[in-house]
Amino acid sequence: MSDSLREVSRQTSMLVSRARGWMGSAWDVRISGGATRADRLRALIDEFAALGREAGSGAPSGARPPRISDHALPDQLIVLADDFFAAAATAVAAVAGSGPGVPLPQHEVTRLLARAGAAVSAARADLDTPGFGFRPF
Questions:
Q1: How much is the pTM?
Q2: What are the residues whose beta carbons fall under 8 Å from the beta carbon of 38, sequence distance 6 or more?
Q3: What is the pLDDT along the chain (137 residues), one digit of tens a residue?
C-alpha cells in the first residue's frame, strides 16, 4: 500500500471514529453551509462511491449508495472507503507490475488518491463544529 493511500485510510478512520460517537441529535447539528452532519457524511460517502468506480471497484456507473439511518453512516463510509482503497491498491500494484488487475495510468491513481485525501480533509474540517453534538440554545 502506498504512503498516500495509507494516509487517506488513516484520516478516514479518524473521521469514522469521531462520527461513531455521535448520538441522536448530534447528527442534526448544522455545519457551515447549512447542511447537517449527516448530510455532510452522506456527501463524503457518495464521493467514495464515485472514487471507487473510477478506481475500478466494479460498481455500475451511476449507482449510488442506499440512504440509510444516520447512526449507520460510519459503517457505510467504511464499506465504500474500503472498496475504494482495495481498488486503488489493486491499481497501484498493477501499475507496478506486481499484481493482477487493469492498471490505471500512474497519474490517474495519483489524482484519485489526491481527490480522496482532499474529500476526507474537507469533510473533517466541515464536521469539526462546536457543540460536540449539542444543539445551541
A1: 0.87
A2: 27, 28, 70, 73
A3: 578 889 999 999 999 999 999 988 999 999 888 899 999 999 999 999 999 999 988 888 888 899 999 999 999 999 999 999 999 888 877 766 655 555 677 888 889 999 999 999 999 999 886 654 444 43
